[in-house]
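Reading a protein record of the kind used here takes only a little practice. The record below shows the convention in full:
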Amino acid sequence: MPRIRPLVLTCIRHQRKAPFNNSFQNASTQFPALLAANESLIQAVHTELPWWATIMGLTCLLRTSLTLPIAVYQQRSVGKMIQLAPIIQSWGTTLKTQIASESKQKGWGYARYNGELQKQYRKKVGEIYAHYGCSRWKLLALPYIQIPLWVSMSLTLRHMTGYPLPWYGQTSDGPAQGLSEGGFGWVTNLTVPDPTMTFPLLIGAGTLLNVELNAWLSKDKEKTITQKVMTNAFRCLAVVFVPIAAHAPMTLGLYWVTSTWYSVVQNIAFRIPSVRATLKMPPLQPPPIKNEYQQDNT
């Protein structure tokens, strides 16, 4: 029966065959250790579930415990930023007057005045956001968690299926025990691609749907050229990903389709007012601001 070699030992042996600089060598040691931890987690869950349910269930568990809380936090932070907008706008007007007065006294040119204004404005806005617990850098936390999770789990499943890993080559003598018959329906063998193309098409459709949902929800906002280019790039990526998934084993297909459609369900759920209220997210459309000079005829 095929045997999976310990991933850490395999990669360490691979390291000894080729010289690396110190920083890359440290990363090369930590990376296989992470994959080995993922493998241990998958094997632990598999003791209670068949392989197909292990992959799909663990994907939902990891997304719910790691990425969902960060996504909820980001939505709450955006709500706080919207609430803080009047304060920042008022403070910015005051700052502009102060810097203009200082610039006139010291004889600064427009470039010096504008540079000082932008510098102090960014500093103060950062202080306000940090004070209210919605620092800008925290809004970028989701991709820093979700992307490494997706890559590491994909490589771990690739290793367990008996496929070679990039830079490390062949790290196992064959697929993990039971993967060849651990599927369901027409995908009983999880070590080969989906012969019907059902899962690759589902992965591409889910990825494209996520892109279009985000584009539709921001249709009323003015987009920069960079944002438009990124949206079109992700659309192309969704199409390109179909033939990639068509050549991937079903272990990866199950993981990718579950993760992709988890994102679809999450994006849709975040647009439901009752869900947003339960998760303490700000409403999608803030209530209209009443003009203080408008008389109430009621």
Summary: Residues 290 and 298 are 14 Å apart (CA to CA). The mean pLDDT is 82.
